[in-house]
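In keeping with the milestone schedule agreed at the kick-off meeting, the structural modelling team has produced records for the first pair of proteins. Each record is given below as a sequence line and a structure-token line. The laboratory manager (R.T.) confirmed that both were archived under the project's standard naming scheme.
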Amino acid sequence: MTDATAAPREITNKRVLNIALPIVLSNVTIPILGAVDTGVVGQMGEAAPIGAVGLGAIVLSAIYWVFGFLRMGTTGLAAQALGQGNRAELAALLTRVLMIGLAAGATIILLQVPLIWAAFRLAPASAEVETLARGYMQIRIWSAPAAIAVFGITGWLIAQERTRAVLVLQVWMNGVNVALNVVFVLGFGWGVNGVAFATFIAEWTGLAMGLYLCRAAFRVPDWRDWARVFDRIKLKRMAQVNSDILIRSLLLEAIFLSFMFLGADFGDVTLAANQVLLQFLYITAYALDGFAFSAEALVGQAVGARAVASLRRASVVASLWGLAASVLLAAGFWVFGVPIVEVMAKNLEVQEAARAYLPWMAAAPVLALASFMFDGIFIGATRTSDMRNMMLVSALIYAASAFLLVPAFGNHGLWAALLISFVARGATLAARYPALERSVRD
């Protein structure tokens, strides 16, 4: 079921925006859910439940985050299969990612005792908070197979430019979660466990919704063509792509963790200010993700079709829209940064400290743009070994920058080192881009 004669579709501004905007809207719902979780539990009038939900959610998110490669790797591989006109491989790939997601989730369930034990050794809390958080995690962890499988479904849908379906899926999961939070916590009085049960149900119904959105793939027999599903070459390629992305993501996480640890040396006020300012980077990521995902899908299809002109145009058009978004973000942070800080932090000392470092936030969207866009381009092309290697180089540049700048300039030096790492990632991947185009021509 391969249509090698199909001409590549034109890469237009409308096509890029049709992919990007639903992702941006989908990302908007993510912080809303966290706010509702906190707000609903906060109605109990005690501090411990709020801390328990926050701690439990962070720990599980960190565990699930390890499997984020399934989203990225799936997008690149599925987009290339689509570009090749290979619908049979596209369907078989969906089966593979579902099997990996379910198996990974089952493994987490089996290992839940040591995982939860290790989490509380790394992030100790009061006895009351730990007891409540442990109960929360022991409920939510049973939806790990669904949560991780949804990563793969999301990547599969993005590859086909079906980001409206991704938006539907995200709104469904978050909507169910919010509604059940209110019923279980405020209505039934289940407290922290009610929040956990709400998320458990939302994630399993999210998987059901995801499968419904992929229903066309199950109408043809290719999804259960087991010889194709378990093809050794395809599995080896998938494993290589996913392992490269995992290593790259772990290096990126190491940069952010070291940033927080180094910031802690400057005292509680500076640490709190840095945490507030990091929200500006998260907002940047939520906005630029849409255009990076556009690059993933369109570049992947172009690589599958071996159409260098389409590859280059997809890279340029998506990046130009990303540039427009980054400039708007930078201007917004410059003009509205102080009011945003004052909303997020009521402590006057934290506000004053955060204001001192706001110029870095105004610079961040523009300086980080290339790293986001080239990530999308290289994911779509599945040039993941380049991503891994350039991330290693960028991490070393970050470490050297922090070593030189932090002693001399304090927290300003720390922010400079972080932004230098973004610039380094974009520049090193840009240096590898010509090789990417040559690989498509060969």
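The second protein of the pair:
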Amino acid sequence: MTEEQKKAVAVFRFGVISDFVNGIHLDYGESERLLAQKCARKWEIPCSGRTRIGRSTMQRWVTLYQASGDRLESLYPSDRSDAGKCRSLDEETELSLRRVRKEMPKATARGLVEEMKNRRLIPGDLPLSCVYRVLHRHGLMTRDASPPEDRRKFEAEMPNDIWQSDVLHGPTVEVDGRKRKTYLIAFIDDHSRLIPYGAFYLSESIGAFLAALEQAFLTRGLPRKLYVDNGAAFRSKHLEHILASLGIALVHSRPYKPQGRGKIERFFRTVRAEVVDRFVGSKLEDLNGVFSYWLNTQYHTRNHGTTGEPPFARFTSNMACMRSTPENLKDHFRKMEKRRIANDRTLTLNGRLYEGPIALIGKRVDVLYHVHEPERIEIVFQGMTYGFHQPVNPHVNCRVRRTKNDQAELSPVEQNAVMGIDARYQGGRLFSKEAQS
């Protein structure tokens, strides 16, 4: 299993157990009810064909996470002892099963196995678990018409329990003489309807969303859950890792089911009616200025139609359980890549060449960096930091020589340059003074 796959599994496991480790005390009855619900539902488990999670498995994940001091790495899957061995159907049998399934779309798994036996496509019995795994993986399981859904109105019990987030397509503005479309990225606190942060951007990409998310954390602290849709930005592995490292569960609404995000959708309707449709400026700064003024002087201070209280007053009335933003918040937004340090002490990251420590030559290290600050990276090996490193300057390296103890030392020419002395050629002259005269 690759590092990215292990990270995806760990983020998924944290999402499953987040209700038990997010700092809120649950009594025995509530804890048992949650466990039963999670055991009964079906899951999309990364790197696995299974759809169910057992009670003891969830309890083991909780124990591992808490015993490690809430470290996400404790939820990484361990390598299998039978790695490299055949653990599923061979390719030919799997293709035959898929072909028979398409010919018999309503047949049961046992019926498919019997049909494959009759056609002599398999020599003996075929485990039903393997059949189900293949059918699920390729979307070949039929579903009966489901009864009407039991949808219920909900509201978070405390401020910062749940944030909802989405993107609203805004008006066009003028940027460098061109018309550009804007996008409002906003977050709403489910309990109070307060907006932790919102601003118009020129893109709805993951980069813009992470910039808004960081500002929201700095402004209103950390939520326990972030509820979003299935857009490309919200499916980012980088986003999942950031939230999991901060102890925040990322929850996606079901595709084509916007009802669960009704609060942010209702807020966007208000923004469109009271801000977007009345905006007469042409600059992005003007649009954000109007939105910020309206948000703080009108929306946050007037009674909300559902709660009957101003969002700001409701949010600040019960702040005892809120989690503050850590001082190293910026570090949590860094990306991590695996790289091996070459024999010349260099490593390559996004087309840039960096110089690493001598002690790590030949080692595979973690490289932490900010997308918008590629010139500064941190190298970590086995949980220990080896400091920050800059891109290689080959022109400086050509003037570095090694002493007998393999220590770096600047050449005399470079030393003169550092001391302010004329660094041009100072050796013997081609002609003597007498010859020059």
